[in-house]
Specification:
The complex is a heterodimer of chains A (167) and B (581).
Chain A lengths: L4 H13 L8 H12 L4 H11 L3 H10 L11 E6 L2 H5 L2 H12 L5 E2 L5 E6 L11 E3 L2 E3 L9 H17 L1
Chain B lengths: L3 H17 L4 E5 L2 H6 L1 H15 L4 E5 L11 E4 L5 E4 L4 H12 L9 E5 L14 H4 L17 H6 L4 H9 L2 H11 L11 H10 L6 E6 L8 H8 L1 H15 L3 E7 L3 H16 L15 E7 L8 H8 L23 E5 H13 L1 H5 L9 E8 L5 E6 L4 H8 L9 E6 L6 E3 L9 H6 L8 E6 L4 H15 L5 H18 L7 H15 L3 H4 L3 H9 L1 H8 L25 H8 L1
Helix pairs in contact in B: 3-4, 7-11, 7-14, 8-9, 8-11, 10-11, 10-12, 11-14, 18-19, 18-22, 19-20
Chain lengths: 167, 581
């Protein structure tokens, strides 16, 4: 069921009012809305501008700077693959290629059926466990799946992704 | 108002009950490294097994003890028994441990990693003999993996906040500052600026509102020690920050973390709240006349946000782009007020320095670099993890004696140190000491402490290309030599790795790199040439093979590299307008 404009405005307002930051800024408001809606809509930009007393330009400027913000609703599932140097040395390119192949994508983005959104990440923060992928914000390394070798890990990741596509 | 002694004795008796009471105490490492290896599943299994067996035990989720190669780690101490660490635990092994050791008395030497005890435990290696543990001197990491980061009482029972009590109730701010100056502590974020000197600048700035900013942006791939400290022992940082505030007359502290790292963020938020409840933060701390407030500020994905002036812009909610200096932060910082920026590691040393004295800290390490180095080991290495060793050890000792070399005995080719801007260090240069001066002389910076090991399968051109791809993606775009220079460098390196280089490419790259260094405001552009320069210097053969013989020695460049094909200016005004409609 599609959200009406009023409902959308209300969810933006709720996210703005409920944000956890002690000091409210344009950035903290954007992060709150991205967390609760999954993306930054044009209406959200308007509301953030009036809520924080900034101009639309200021808000767009901040939103377009940080690479975690997106401007269209995300797919049902969110997959991140790390391509930082450690993961690269441990076989991240192979994992990336498999994931892109399985999703039928050429670069990061959403699948046509909007089941999966793929994002490249520069560091997921657990380099000692690389190569890492994150599926719906759960970080997965080779050990979690019980395999040490790169080929098995790639296969397991492909399996997880294909389940996401089906489910 | 309860005095600190009361708080301490209450915490201490509760902690003793845990450590040597009549129930087993199970600690499980659930920092992000543990989580990526499956520790949440282990916690669930242990809890359900304890229920079904009807065994009464205390279970704590602790941070990262640093032996990340063996995660998930389960650590069990029993009344009267030894403290045993089990490594590489999966849910099934966890069930075995609960059945054999927690509910009965078989400590299962076959599953154990090591034992932490005075006397030797039959069939289990003592922690003191574990290669990754034996050479460590844990100051900032002293509590990591030992205490529950969500329990302030455990931190206090192990000596926490005693330094704060001592400082605010029996020392003047000048005395605290002098201890830190005497300790010789230098910043651990990369620039290695003397911490005490930095604080003295802030102390001279006019108040009443002054900020201590704690930088945990930590975008360096390969470095996870700042997040590790916040996730494992956030109170060390909080106590260090309050002490910094006391010494420099600051009124507010802000912990700056990249959004999305839930472990460090949630544990820091909880820790700050607990510190307020006990009167360790807020007005009149521990009955003194000193007041200090702390909060957490989150940033979006931007590597440059970790630069000190860009960080202040980000806290103000703007684009994380560096400011020109002067004015320096001590005069004009966040919100235009005097500010001091320290790395998480630097601040986490401070409680121990105040508790044990600056002289004690200065006794560890080398003449130019006092204290310990907190290192993150990752890449093609046998024992990956987070360690703290005295300055002055050689890199060779760290890589081979502590971390066991490469997993399959292949030759180490190079080391990538200090984040993507740090450059590469070849195997033959690894006799260099862990020392800020010696490291930068060798052409590598100690930086934030990330050491990424690459074995002989890695190609230097490939690594340089990946590092420049990272730097190009993360350039904030303010200074054009960096924004355009990185883009040109990546184009040239792509040509080189596709064996389509032009004869003038080497000269062109050098030219661009030098211009970037000369014409950029912050370290991102100034040092952005480092990865290529050091790769060219130490691995000229790799480059000439690509450029002249049209081949890659290791074959790594045969595979295409996929990196994000966009920059920070990816949204044109027209696109943004379209989105809005």
């Amino acid at each position: 069921m599609a959200e009406t404009r009023e409902q959308h405005d209300q969810s933006i307002k709720d996210a703005l009012m409920k944000q956890n930051a002690k000091t409210v800024t344009v950035l903290s408001s954007l992060l709150a809305i991205q967390d609760s809606l999954g993306y930054i809509s044009g209406r959200a930009i308007d509301q953030i501008a009036s809520y924080t007393g900034s101009t639309l330009n200021d808000v767009w400027g901040v939103a377009s700077f940080y690479t975690n913000f997106r401007f269209s609703p995300p797919g049902e599932n969110f997959v991140e693959v790390c391509w930082g140097p450690t993961c690269h040395l441990l076989g991240a390119q192979g994992v990336l290629d498999c994931v892109l192949g399985e999703l039928g994508l050429k670069e990061e983005g959403d699948t046509g059926d909007r089941k999966v959104s793929l994002k490249f990440n520069t560091c997921l923060g657990a380099c000692s466990q690389g190569p890492l992928v994150s599926v719906n914000h759960k970080i997965i390394g080779p050990k979690l799946i019980g395999d040490a070798n790169p080929k098995d890990f790639q296969n397991s990741v492909v399996k997880i992704i294909s389940d996401l596509k089906k489910g | 108002m309860t005095s600190f002694d009361e708080i301490y004795s209450k915490s201490k008796s509760r902690y003793q009950e845990l450590e040597s009471g009549n129930k087993p105490w199970i600690r499980i490492g659930t920092a992000v490294c543990g989580e990526a290896a499956g520790s949440k599943e282990v916690v669930d299994r242990i809890k359900s097994d304890l229920r079904s067996l009807g065994v009464d035990a205390n279970v704590s989720e602790v941070g990262c003890i640093g032996l990340c190669y063996a995660e998930p780690i389960v650590d069990v101490i029993k009344p009267g028994g030894p403290r045993i660490f089990y490594g590489n635990v999966n849910p099934d092994i966890a069930s075995e441990i609960v059945k054999s050791y927690v509910s009965e008395d078989d400590y299962r030497p076959d599953l154990a990693l090591a034992a932490m005890s005075e006397s030797d435990v039959d069939g289990v290696m003592n922690m003191k003999d574990l290669p990754m543990w034996s050479k460590q001197v844990r100051v900032a990491l002293r509590n990591c993996g030992n205490i529950d980061p969500m329990e302030i009482g455990q931190y206090i029972a192990t000596g926490g906040y005693a330094a704060l009590d001592k400082a605010v109730n029996s020392m003047t701010p000048e005395e605290v500052l002098k201890e830190v100056q005497d300790s010789g502590l230098r910043g651990r974020g990369g620039a290695a600026f003397p911490t005490g000197t930095k604080w003295s600048f802030l102390a001279r700035s006019p108040g009443p509102v002054k900020y201590i900013l704690c930088n945990c942006e930590e975008g360096d791939p390969g470095a996870f020690n700042d997040k590790g400290i916040l996730e494992s022992d956030p109170h060390s940082l909080i106590e260090g920050t309050i002490l910094a505030g006391y010494a420099s007359g600051a009124s507010n502290g802000i912990v700056f973390i990249r959004h999305g790292h839930e472990g460090p963020i949630n544990r820091t938020l909880a820790a700050i709240e607990q510190a307020y409840e006990l009167g360790l933060l807020g007005n009149n701390i521990l009955g003194s006349s000193f007041s200090f407030d702390m909060e957490v500020s989150l940033t979006g994905d931007s590597y440059v946000a970790g630069e000190e002036t860009a960080l202040m812009e980000s806290i103000e909610g703007k684009r994380a782009m560096p400011r020109a200096r002067p004015p320096f932060p001590a005069a004009y910082g966040v919100w235009g007020l005097p500010s001091n920026i320290n790395n998480i590691k630097s601040l986490s040393y401070v409680p121990e320095i105040i508790a044990k004295g600056g002289e004690w800290f200065a006794g560890i390490g080398t003449d130019g670099s006092k204290g310990t180095a907190i290192l993150c080991l990752s890449g093609n290495i046998k024992y990956s993890g987070m360690i703290e060793v005295p300055m002055g050890l050689t890199i060779n000792q760290v890589i081979y004696d502590i971390a066991g070399g490469t997993p399959d005995g292949r030759k180490v080719k190079f080391l990538q140190t200090g984040g993507p801007l740090g450059g590469v260090l070849p195997d033959e240069k690894m006799d260099v000491e862990l020392d800020f001066g010696a490291m930068s002389q060798a052409g590598a910076i100690l930086g934030s402490g990330g050491l990424i090991v690459a074995d002989e399968r890695a190609c230097a051109v490939n690594m340089a290309r990946l590092l420049v791809a990272f730097c190009q993606y993360e350039s904030c775009g303010k200074c054009f030599p960096c924004r355009l220079g990185m883009t040109n460098l990546i184009e040239i390196l792509e040509r080189v790795s596709n064996f389509a280089s032009r004869p003038e490419d080497l000269e062109l790259m050098t030219n661009i790199g030098q211009n970037m260094a000369a014409g950029s405001l912050c370290g991102h552009g100034q040092l952005g040439w480092n990865p290529v320069q050091s790769a060219l210097k130490y691995f000229p053969d790799d480059f000439s093979a690509h450029m002249e013989e049209k081949r890659c020695i290791t074959g790594q460049c045969a595979q295409q590299i996929t990196t994000p094909q966009r920059t920070r200016s990816r949204w044109s005004p027209v696109q943004l307008l379209e989105l809005k409609v």
